[in-house]
Amino acid sequence: MEDLLTDASGKMTRSIEAFKKEMDAAKVDYRYINYPGAVHAFTNPEATEKGKQFNLPLAYHPEADKQSKAEAAKFLRDVVANGGKVLFVGTKRQAQEIVGREASRAGAFYLNRRWVGGLITNFDSVKKNIVKMEDLSQKIRENKLSQYTKKEQLLAARELAKLENDIGGLKGMRELPQAMVLASIKSEEIAASEARQRGIPLVGIADTNADPAKVSYPIPGNDDATASIEIIMKALADACKK
Length: 242
Known about the structure:
Order of helices and strands: EEHEEHHEHEHHEHEEH
Distance between the termini: 41 Å
Strand content: 15-25%
Number of helices: 8
Shape: elongated
CATH architecture of the largest domain: 3-Layer(aba) Sandwich
CATH class of the largest domain: Alpha Beta
CATH topology of the largest domain: Rossmann fold
Largest sheet: 5 strands, parallel
Number of strands: 9
Number of domains: 3
């Protein structure tokens, strides 16, 4: 039986061999990513250097999404089984609540408001703010600021609120994560770049405008659709639960 590709709606389009011939005729440098039948295409290196790179929509088998998600989940299970920590990142409006909820359920770290620049590449500096947040939270909880003026207590409460909004999902984090999960490869490019600099493996949702080669475990999906994000993040969070 001929190996067929489908479009986003699941409609059969053409065989992989036909796709290859089409790309060769157009002089497009294409390559397979890490699940059967999935192809992501780029122009040749010369055109790319001139800023003419373009992406073709991901073409995949109906089972490709399921398989890529299973491979990513297995990787995360192995990370956690070996004592590693996972950081979930999802700062797009559609992903914020889902990422916070699912990461918390899995006992993983998360950022869902904005990416904190230098979190990975300058972690020692960010770690000081994490410790400060935890210390301030404990002092307020145990009423240890009662000797300060009301104004000072108010300022401390405001500072804590800002820290918790920005890095509340990093409580207890004392070292770099052993893996990161991105709710959108495209939207979290800065986070992905920092992770690659430190050699941290990445799992992420690859929409049709993203380059799946930038992460270790791309999962095809719509990073603008809440339902799509939720299904994928839930499966990956389940994999992170001990």
